[in-house]
Amino acid sequence: MNEKLHGAMFNVQYLELMLREALRTFESLIEFKMKGILNYQVDDLAIDKLALGRLADQYAKYTANTLFKSEVEKVIKARNRLAHRLFISVEVHKDSLPEEIDKDVEEAVLHGETAARLGDEVFALMQHYYFDPVLQDWHIPS
To answer: Which residue ranges of the chain lie beneath pLDDT 50?
Structure first.
């Protein structure tokens, strides 16, 4: 597979992984804080089944970051194009890409870079929320 396409797809998968882990973290925090008040349980299976768009929707609810959601929507469009049209074209043409496909690859790479940046943002935010086993409580940034 073309290295550029491979890198772009990897970045999108990285974003998806970070969103899943962030949702698990936020849901676990809610579960912990609601213990004894409400019967709230993290549904790992449901989180695992969410597609990138739904992951971004859920994440946006917790962060109220509307710019993030619009950027993810652009990444999803580029990922779909990458997965469907570009991958097949690149595999058929191998090293001699037509100019139009080469431009599409470059666009996919840019969106892949956006996906990586968004994944890093999710990871950075998630690092501030963690369970402290010694205190038996969650660290929540002020």
So the answer is: 1
Q: What is the pTM of this model?
A: 0.81
| CA-to-CA separations, 122 to 78, 101, 119, 126, in angstroms, rounded | 20, 31, 5, 6
* Per-residue b or e along 46-60, where b marks 16 or more CB atoms closer than 10 Å to that residue's CB: ebeebebeebbebbb
How many Cβ atoms are within 10 Å of 40's Cβ, its own excluded? 12
**Hey, what are 86's tokens?**
């570009």
Tracing tokens 């089944």 back to the chain, one arrives at: 49
Contact 138, 33 (CB under 8 A): yes
Measured between alpha carbons, how far is 29 from 141 in angstroms, rounded to an integer? 13
